[in-house]
Amino acid sequence: MFDNLPLWPERASSTAGNVDALYIFLLIVSGLMTLLIFTAVVYFAARYRRRRGVLAEQIEGSTPLELTWSIIPLGVFLVIFAWGAVVYFKSRTPPRDSTEVYVVAKQWMWKVEHAEGQREINELHVPVGRDVKLIMTSQDVIHSFYVPAFRMKQDVLPGRYTVEWFRATKPGTYHLFCAEYCGTQHSGMIGSIVVMEPAQFEAWMSGGTTGPLSATGEKIFAELGCVTCHRADSQGRGPSLQGLFGKPVLLQDGRTVTADENYVRESILDPGAKIVNGFKPVMPTFQGLVSEEQLNALVAYVKSLSSSSAGGVKANAAAVAMPDPAPAKGSQVNQ
Ligand code: CUA
After folding, report:
1. Over the stretch 232-286, which tens digit does the pLDDT of each residue have?
2. What are the Cα distances from residue 30, in Å, to 33, 36, 44, 69, 204?
3. Calpha distance 232→50 (Å, rounded)
4. What is the reported pLDDT for 210?
């Protein structure tokens, strides 16, 4: 409806419509309230103006009136709250079978790496109609990954991963902005999201690559000697990483945490922070020894050791190879 209205950015993701609908609702409610208040002000100013010989009559409150102006706004606010919560949780929760893309921000560029190994700078190529989950971190200061056409914005922080996701609904090239002031070249920290037809994307994907990200991670895992303690047969000095990702982990202090991206990251950089139950805090830190890109590769490798996650990556690779990924997508969901 608003595609030709320049006040609205293009709408090119599955969440964009929901965000706009809520926003338009807020505009209408605010507009109606403004109209109501100003009409009342003008009307009452005229109706109850001071007149010669007429004494003001004092009114000491009215219960029905007070109830009305409390209950109606409460109802309106609850609608806004519930509606906003639904839109928020939907846009914050990546679907299970999302394709994963790693993003590293630095002053002043966006570095992108696909699970299949393709790297890009200030560009992100994605197929139309596929759920894409961005796993993002920063090498220096706080940045913010903002794509107006997708109604999507998420801060990118140093020292941890943040996540956002989208499903592009229209092929095209869309603006990517950094939305957090991050230094002198902040305004130049821009790029584009290129949404392609699946067949086109498949052709693009088959271009030069250094191999899957998880394979790079496996190499780093061996080079750093991680493999000597984290053995697959559970006989090592460290916990086995087979099937770990996404599972709950019992810690020495009795807490249970989920082995997600941030857990793996922290365990590499600050191994003492969360000691797995039954193990000793003997692992050295790798802070300063691995770059953000290498960390991403290690996370991807640990993920690939978990059967369900590895299946997810394979299923996505299969979807890339299919001429029409729609049926593949459906069968994935039905699994
Ligand atoms: Cu990065 Cu502003």
Report:
1. 777 778 888 888 888 888 888 888 898 888 888 888 888 888 888 888 888 888 8
2. 5, 10, 21, 16, 47
3. 89
4. 67
Ligand 1 centre from 156 Cα, in Å? 9
Contact by Cβ (8 Å): 123, 194: yes
User: Which run of H or of E encompasses 155?
Assistant: strand 152-156
Ligand 1 geometric centre to CA of 102 (Å): 17
Distance from the CA of 154 to the center of ligand 1, in angstroms?
A: 12
- How many residues comprise the chain? 335
176 alpha carbon, distance to own chain's centre: 14
CA–CA separation, 119 vs 325, rounded Å? 22
Q: Are 262 and 160 in contact (CB under 8 A)?
A: yes
Q: Is 106 in the pocket of ligand 1 (CB under 6 A)?
A: no
Q: Are 151 and 20 in contact (CB under 8 A)?
A: yes
By three-state DSSP, how is residue 181 classified? coil
CA distance to 36, 39, 41, 55, 119, per residue, from 49 (Å):
19, 15, 11, 11, 72
Sheet of strand 131-138: strand arrangement: 119-121, 109-114, 99-106, 131-138, 162-167
> For residue 180, which atom of ligand 1 is closest to its CA?
2
Q: How far apart are CA 93 and CA 89, in angstroms?
A: 6
Q: How far apart are CA 249 and CA 279, in angstroms?
A: 12
Q: Who contacts 155 (Cβ-Cβ below 8 Å, separation ≥6)?
A: 142, 143, 144, 162, 180
What's the whole-model pTM score? 0.70
Which DSSP string corresponds to 75-131?
HHHHHHHHHHHHHHHHHHS--TTPEEEEEEEETTEEEEEETTS-EEESEEEEETT-E
Contact 131 CB / ligand 1 (< 6 Å)? no
